[in-house]
């Protein structure tokens, strides 16, 4: 049981790392991972950051809309591009369910008597009810956290030039 729990925690811990994309380092590749109209955060060569929408991406130039004003950038002009992405709710639900089930089990065992005077189904019900209720409320909490909290993802990093 202990090994199974440890394996589940390890898989859930590493799942977001395995799903993360690598940042691209050319506009040619950037064109493949973005869409027209997508909101991005651009850090230019001076280090200033601005929020914009992608208008067009070619092999040599990136055209962005800043409050409706078009502006063209070459690869040398941009240091980094980020975008907001929603965390997949699946991992939040699973992590929340596992944590809630564990807490529910502990609390349910406390409510069960140390020794059950009767044999039968009544013994251990507190732990089972605690697991079910904890998993339910934990998964709801995990879902809420994943829906509310967006994450910034780096999609482009300029190549280091010698």
Walk me through what this model shows.
- With 162 residues, this protein is α+β, with helices and mostly antiparallel strands.
- The chain folds into two domains: 2-11 and 88-148, no CATH class; 21-86 and 150-157, SH3 type barrels.
- Helix content is 44%, strand content 27%.
- The chain has helices spanning 2-19, 27-33, 89-111, 125-148; strands at 39-44, 49-57, 61-66, 69-74, 78-86, 150-157.
- A six-stranded antiparallel beta sheet has the order 4-3-2-1-5-6.
- A hairpin with a 3-residue loop joins strand 2 (49-57) and strand 3.
- Helix 1 runs antiparallel to helix 3 (89-111) and helix 3 (89-111) packs antiparallel against helix 4 (125-148).
- It is rod-shaped.
Main β-sheet: number of strands, strand sense, barrel status? 6 strands, antiparallel
Number of helices: 4
The CATH architecture of the largest domain comes to Roll
Helicity range: 40-55%
User: What would you call the shape?
Assistant: rod-shaped
First-residue to last-residue Cα separation: 54 Å
Low-confidence region ranges:
none
Beta percentage is 25-35%
What string gives the helices and strands in order? HHEEEEEHHE
Placed side by side, the strands forming the largest sheet appear as 4-3-2-1-5-6
Number of domains: 2
Q: Pairing-aware structural class of the strands and helices?
A: alpha+beta
CATH class type of the largest domain = Mainly Beta
* Gyration radius from CA atoms, angstroms: 24 Å
Regarding quaternary structure, how should these chains be classified? single chain
């Amino acid at each position: 049981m202990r090994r199974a729990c440890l394996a589940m925690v390890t898989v859930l811990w590493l799942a977001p790392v395995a799903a993360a994309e690598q940042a691209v380092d050319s506009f040619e590749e950037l064109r493949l991972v973005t869409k027209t109209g997508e909101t991005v955060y651009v850090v230019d060569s001076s280090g200033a950051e601005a929020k914009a929408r992608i208008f067009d991406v070619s092999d040599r130039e990136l055209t962005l809309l800043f409050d409706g004003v078009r502006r063209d950038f070459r690869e040398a002009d941009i240091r980094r591009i980020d975008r907001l992405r929603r965390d997949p709710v699946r991992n939040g639900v699973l992590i929340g369910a596992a944590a809630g089930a564990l807490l529910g089990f502990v609390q349910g065992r406390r409510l069960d008597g140390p020794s059950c005077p009767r044999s039968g189904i009544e013994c251990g019900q507190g732990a089972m009810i605690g697991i079910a209720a904890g998993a339910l409320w934990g998964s709801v909490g995990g879902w809420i956290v994943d829906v509310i909290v967006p994450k910034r993802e780096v999609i482009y990093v300029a190549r280091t030039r010698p």
